[in-house]
Amino acid sequence: MRLRSTVAGGLLSLALLAAGCGRLPVEQTERYVPPDQVTDFHALYNTNCRACHGPAGENGPAMDLANPEYQALVDDATLRRIISNGMPGTQMPAWAQSAGGMLTDAQVNAIIEGMRKEWSKPNPFQEATPPAYEQPSGADAKTQTADVKQGQQLYQAHCASCHSGHARQELTSPIYLALISDQALRSIIIAGRPDIGQPDWRHDNGQLSPQDVTSIVAYLSSLRTNTAISAPPVPLSSRR
Ligand code: HEC
Ligand code: HEC
After folding, report:
1. Whose CA is nearest to atom 41 of ligand 1?
2. Are 102 and 42 contacting, i.e. CB atoms less than 8 angstroms apart?
3. What's the pLDDT score for residue 206?
C-alpha cells in the first residue's frame, strides 16, 4: 500500500512536471521588461511612433518613414538628431532622455537600425541624384525674395494642378503651414509620399532642380503667418 501510493505520487508529480514544462518558456518570455530596457525595433516603434507615422511606417498623419527614397535621402546623424531632439514648433516630439523624452540613446539607435533594416532598399533613385536633404539656410534678403517669387511660379506650374480645389490638402493655407516645418515640406517634395500618392521631385511635367525645390519651400514658408502659428495644435493621442 505504502509502496503503491509512492508510485502513484511519483507518477502524479511527473505529470505535473510535464505540464509545467510546457508552460515554463512562455512565462519566461512574458516576463516584465522595464521600458528603458526594451530594444526590439517593433516594440519601440509601435509604442512610440506608430500613432503618428502609421502602422509599418506608412499611412499615418505624419511622414511615411517606410519610404525607401526618404531612407536613402537622410543620413544616420540627421535621424539621430531629429529623433532625439524632435522638430521644434511641430508635433514631432523629442525622444531622447537628454532632451526630456523617454528613450535612451541605445533605444534611439535601435530604432534607426530597425528602420534601415526594414525600410531601406538599395539604390531607390536609380540613375537620378536627388536634391540635398537639407534646405540651404542663410540666404540674404535679396536671394530670399527672388526665391519666393520664383517658387510661386514653380508652385503654379508643378503643384497647383493637384493641390487646388477641395480634393487635396490646401498647401498654401497658413493653418496647414503652421503645423509643418520647412524641412518636412522639403523631405516630402523630394522623396514623395508613395503611401498617399504624392510624387517625388521627378514630376511628370518635368523634374524639379535642387534650386526649384529650395524656391518652392521658400515660397510656402513665406505664406506662414504668426497668427496661424499661435493657433492651438491639433490634438494627437500618442505619447503615454
Ligand atoms: C500628381 C498630383 C500631385 C502633384 C503634381 C503634387 N502633389 Fe502633393 N500630393 C498629392 C496627393 C495625392 C497627396 C496626398 C493627399 C493630400 O494630402 O491631399 C499629396 C500630398 C502632399 C503633401 C502632404 C500633405 C499632408 O497631408 O501633409 C505635401 C507637403 C505636398 N503634397 C506637396 C506638394 C508640392 C509642394 C508639390 C509641387 C512641387 C506637389 N505636392 C505636387 C498629389 C500631388
Ligand atoms: C505626435 C506625433 C508624432 C510622434 C509620436 C512621432 N512623430 Fe515623428 N514626426 C511627426 C511630425 C508631425 C513630423 C513632421 C514634423 C515637421 O513638420 O517638421 C515628424 C517628423 C519625423 C522625422 C523627420 C522627417 C523629415 O522630414 O526628415 C523623423 C525621422 C521622425 N519623425 C521619426 C519619428 C520616430 C522614430 C518616432 C518614434 C520614436 C516619431 N517620429 C514619433 C510626428 C510624430
Report:
1. 159
2. no
3. 79
Burial 85-97 (b: 16+ CB within 10 A, else e): bbbeeebbbbbbe
Show the cell assigned to 89. Answer: 514648433
- Does residue 193 register a pLDDT over 60? yes
- For ligand 2, say whether the CB of 191 is within 6 Å of any of its atoms: no
Kindly state if the Cβ of 47 falls inside 6 Å of ligand 2.
Answer: no
Residue 166 confidence class, pLDDT cut points 50, 70, 90: confident
| CB of residue 91 inside a 6 A radius of ligand 2 | yes
Nearest-atom index, ligand 2, CA of 236: 1
Cα–Cα distances (Å) from 236 to 49, 61, 93, 100, 167, in that order, read 12, 10, 12, 19, 23
- Ligand 2: centre distance to CA 60 (Å): 10
